[in-house]
Amino acid sequence: MLEEQLLDPQHHDRLSFTCGVAELDEYLHRFAVQQSKKGIAVVRVLIDTDMPKTILGYYSLSAAQIDAVQMDERTQKKLPRYPVPCFRLGRLAAHSAHRNRGLGRLLIGCAVERCLEAKKHVAAYALVVDAKGEDAKTFYEHYGFTPCRDNPMTLYLSLGS
Ligand SMILES: CC(C)(COP(=O)(O)OP(=O)(O)OC[C@H]1O[C@@H](n2cnc3c(N)ncnc32)[C@H](O)[C@@H]1OP(=O)(O)O)[C@@H](O)C(=O)NCCC(=O)NCCS
């Protein structure tokens, strides 16, 4: 059974994770634990309970803000002119040995669910992500993310009211 867990260096084998993007591998191998401890990001991993050490995918979430002028005109009209609170999907990746099996979809779903839960307690208007390349951008657009006006590699997904 697939399960989402908080990254735990005692239990999860970070070094065997590879997604084909060096920066995203290095983040999990070297920086994710530190960032979790320092309160910079919360990192969650996807595992199969039959192989609980193997990381199948991961994502990180942090608090952030976005300038409303980056959003589409209709959205802007509803928002104040100062930066609005949001969450940032800092990183998201699925293991390259398990592509096209729905892990990416599951990871996004888990991240959005966490944001919807968190926004019951701390307001946030959208989930923002920085795509690491054109492929990643297309992937996020597939899930309804909209490119920002000034920087289309940053995309946002409204979390509803
Ligand atoms: C992007 C990534 C997470 C997708 O993971 P995956 O497990 O192969 O994707 P899924 O099997 O869940 O695919 C889900 C859907 O997204 C689509 N999809 C997958 N990769 C896509 C891409 N690059 N562009 C557009 N759509 C894509 C699939 O066709 C599928 O569509 P469907 O739901 O209509 O059938 C994975 O390829 C990855 O980790 N890439 C390297 C890291 C990366 O680029 N991360 C993005 C963060 S910057």
List the topology elements:
Elements lengths: L1 E5 L15 H17 L3 E7 L8 E10 L6 H6 L5 E11 L8 H16 L7 E5 L3 H9 L3 E2 L6 E5 L3
The protein binds coenzyme A (COA).
Please characterize this protein's 3D structure.
This protein has 161 residues and is α+β, with helices and mostly antiparallel strands. The chain has a single domain, classed as Aminopeptidase, CATH 3.40.630. Helix content is 30%, strand content 28%. The protein is built from four helices and seven strands, in the order E-H-E-E-H-E-H-E-H-E-E. It has helices at 22-38, 73-78, 103-118, 134-142, and strands spanning 2-6, 42-48, 57-66, 84-94, 126-130, 146-147, 154-158. The protein has a seven-stranded mixed β-sheet with strand order 1-2-3-4-5-7-6, with helices on both faces. Strand 4, helix 3 (103-118) and strand 5 (126-130) form a beta-alpha-beta unit. It is globular, with a radius of gyration of 16 Å. The protein starts with a strand and ends with a strand. 30% of the residues are buried. The structure holds coenzyme A.
In short:
The chain is α+β, with helices and mostly antiparallel strands. It has one domain: 3-Layer(aba) Sandwich (Aminopeptidase), CATH 3.40.630.30.
CATH superfamily: Gcn5-related N-acetyltransferase (GNAT)
Mean pLDDT figure:
97
Strand order of the largest sheet: 1-2-3-4-5-7-6
CATH architecture: 3-Layer(aba) Sandwich
The first-level CATH class name: Alpha Beta
Structural class: alpha+beta
Main beta sheet, described? 7 strands, mixed
* Number of separate helices: 4
Question: Residue ranges: pLDDT <50 for 5 or more in a row?
Answer: none
